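Work Package 3 (structural annotation) set out to generate three-dimensional models for the target panel prioritized at the project kickoff. During this period the team completed the workflow that converts sequence records into discrete structure tokens, so that structures can be stored uniformly alongside our sequence database. As a representative example, we reproduce one entry of 255 residues exactly as it appears in the project archive.
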Amino acid sequence: MLRTILAVNLTVVAWGQSQTAPAFEVATIKPSPQFINWSGIQTPGGGRFEASHATLKAMVAYAYDVREFYVAGGPGWAGSDRFEIVAKTDAKADANATPAQMRVMLQSLLTERFKLALHRETKEATVYQLVVSKGGPKLQEAGGDPGFIRFLGRGQIDGQRIPMTGLANYLQTLLGEVVVDKTALTASYNFKLAWTPDEGQAGRPGAGAGLGNPAEESGPSIFTALQEQLGLKLEGTKGPVETVVIDHAEKPSEN
């Protein structure tokens, strides 16, 4: 296992005239109200960062550009307590910050306010390749702008104008493992998929309770459903995966 220690004092050369890591001018952090049922992180522009009902692990994942299921360690509350954050910078040079630059700003904010310390590790993990089954794909090609994946209920999704990279990303979140698109299918597609989630998928998108009729408990697994209903297959291999491990974190004071 390869371990890389992350330095707290970051330097960024291509950021205006400064040689030190950029940081937000002001930031407010508050515990999230219990009644909020939406969670998200966004950068609406103008050097502004917003997180709603987000856990520390979710923000670490965004800041260091990894999937949340590859953020490990830390205190128990790092994956359960949720926060509301609004941060922005007044500097004109930062008003049109790129996503990469906003991530560096968030890294600085988490280090300062959450006393965050972490390191990266590369380990062997399961990596799935999404490929076309021998019988060929069973997908309806669709034109138009990129669409959406809608959850119809437990173990049921409806995809509209979805490229295979989009489906691979959804499966990656569902399975908690890396999924890479190797189908060579370049169009967007409409499809419906129904399966019986296993216990390990509980609470993941499309796997938990939802509106509509629940999937039959005797129905196919996600692997079988992909083959039978979409003509696709997940092939598992082992490969290197980068993880971020939280060594230390403290709850921030409100302001």
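The radius of gyration is 20 Å.
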